[in-house]
User: Which sequence fits this backbone?
């Protein structure tokens, strides 16, 4: 892990905070969620607010990631089956 403000996706000069991880040790798995989770912090109050939000966002974000992966797996499985049936006649 690394600190959120050192997140490879947080390249801007503005202080950035990963809403998945908060300011604590940044979770590398979170990088799968990419820059959408990096938010600019301009005032300290914003940071406090985001930290509270990030605890619930983390759970929701991970759930969404799992669902997305399951969906991609299902789509791939269907494609594989279609490819197999294409070869039956040949």
Assistant:
């Amino acid at each position: 892990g690394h600190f959120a403000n050192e997140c490879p996706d947080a390249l801007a000069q503005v202080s950035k905070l990963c809403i998945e991880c908060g300011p604590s040790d940044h979770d590398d798995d979170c990088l799968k969620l990419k820059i959408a989770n990096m938010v600019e912090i301009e005032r300290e109050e914003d940071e406090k607010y985001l930290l509270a939000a990030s605890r619930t966002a983390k759970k929701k974000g991970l759930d969404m990631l799992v669902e997305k992966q399951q969906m991609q797996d299902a789509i791939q499985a269907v494609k594989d089956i279609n490819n197999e049936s294409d070869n039956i006649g040949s």
